[in-house]
């Protein structure tokens, strides 16, 4: 089954104070970390790569890196709007892997492990899990497309995941830092000194 990768990069960074995605983390802009990890994976991992953002700088940069840029002009509608915009670009028979762009310590090995867990399992969804906590990225089979399109407001795919716990494969990782999404500047100070 072909899988499309969607990078979600449209948030308003309210708690961070400035656009966190354009903040440097370990020598690279935050949004580049996951994008670079995805691009370091074998080409046949994803049938399509998409980035959804309200920021022209991110769209232009990642378009040059092989991502199809999708502009979100209504970020106030919440993450569900980015999910809808991405799905409009993806063939209905594709599975979709959604990843947020504020997890700078996520590795390609984890993304690839998640894909393998999804493909080797009969379950319709797969997520990354560490120490009993489910996190991003998450892969959805085509059968969940309608539920993803029915999301509204600042609600993402986790709602669909929680509605069908029996149909979720989990890829276990050991390093909780990989699942850390950066919401506040203090997280960067703490993590960079680890």
UniProtKB/TrEMBL annotation:
Pfam families xrefs: NTP_transf_3 (PF12804)
CDD domains: GT_2_like_f
InterPro entries according to UniProt: MobA-like_NTP_Trfase, Nucleotide-diphossugar_trans
Domain MobA-like NTP transferase: 6-164
Listed Gene3D superfamilies: Spore Coat Polysaccharide Biosynthesis Protein SpsA, Chain A
Domain of life: Bacteria
Protein name: Nucleotidyltransferase family protein
Species: Ventrimonas faecis
């Amino acid at each position: 089954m072909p899988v499309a990768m969607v990078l979600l990069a449209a948030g308003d960074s309210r708690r961070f104070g400035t656009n966190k995605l354009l903040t440097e983390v370990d020598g690279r802009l935050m949004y580049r970390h996951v994008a670079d990890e995805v691009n370091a994976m074998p080409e046949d991992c994803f049938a399509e790569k998409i980035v959804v953002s309200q920021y022209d700088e991110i769209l232009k940069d990642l378009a040059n890196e092989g991502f199809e840029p999708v502009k979100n002009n209504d970020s106030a509608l919440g993450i569900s709007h980015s999910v809808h915009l991405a799905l409009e670009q993806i063939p209905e028979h594709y599975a979709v892997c959604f990843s947020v762009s504020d997890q700078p310590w996520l590795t390609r090995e984890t993304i690839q492990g998640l894909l393998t867990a999804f493909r080797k399992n009969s379950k319709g969804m797969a997520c990354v899990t560490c120490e009993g906590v489910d996190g991003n990225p998450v892969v959805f089979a085509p059968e969940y497309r309608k539920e993803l399109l029915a999301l509204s407001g600042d609600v993402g795919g986790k709602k669909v995941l929680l509605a069908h716990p029996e149909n979720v494969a989990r890829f276990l990782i050991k390093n909780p830092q990989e699942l850390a999404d950066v919401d506040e500047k203090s997280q960067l100070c703490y993590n960079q000194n680890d």
